[in-house]
Design goal:
seven-stranded mixed beta sheet; single chain; 180 residues; alpha/beta; two-stranded antiparallel sheet
Length: 180
């Protein structure tokens, strides 16, 4: 199971675009409300999360995704359960993915240490000793996947599919949505 964390103030495009692409590819994804079942993004779009943090099943965990948005990142940092889930995933060799300002949370947890990564331009100072890759929409280094911004959400989503289901599945979804 793939879990996408949604904290109050998350960046809607960085959540919905990858979520849609993953589901198109047949990946089981549940949205997880950090602050309850109804979560409002940074642009006041309300989303009803599939489950809350208390309902996450660690035995089925394949990947945890963290969208950006300064409010969403702050919500994640303020939730010890969310931080524990990210740490658990990483320590148990599961995929951990984050986009925009989200990778800075992973840096706080030591997950990006020595790994190739990207983040929203201007957030690099919060990336610790990650090996930053400039001008990349998405970067994968083993089980770590990072993305740059809302404008890169589709490429980030395709990278998530590639990690979970292979390049052929990602290419099929890219063709289906007519990437040009």
């Amino acid at each position: 199971m793939v879990y996408m964390l949604l904290g109050t103030g998350f960046e809607e495009t960085e959540a919905i675009a990858p979520l849609d692409l993953l589901r198109r590819a047949g990946v089981d994804v549940l949205t997880v409300g950090i602050n309850g079942k109804i979560v409002y993004g940074g642009h006041h779009i309300g989303i009803e999360a599939d489950i809350t943090l208390d309902e996450v099943d660690l035995t089925s965990l394949e990947m945890v995704i963290l969208p950006g948005g300064l409010g969403g990142v702050a919500s994640t940092r303020a939730s010890q359960k969310a931080l524990d889930l990210l740490t658990f995933a990483w320590e148990n060799d599961k995929f951990v993915a984050a986009i925009c300002a989200g990778p800075t949370v992973l840096a706080d947890l030591g997950i990006t240490s020595g790994k190739h990564a990207t983040c929203y331009p201007g957030c690099e100072s919060g990336m610790g000793d990650a090996v930053m890759i400039e001008n990349a929409a998405a970067v994968r280094d083993g089980k770590l996947i990072t993305g740059t911004s809302a404008g890169c959400a589709v490429k980030f989503g395709l990278e998530l599919i590639k990690a979970l289901k292979g390049a052929q599945a990602a290419d099929a979804i890219a063709e289906q949505i007519v990437i040009r």
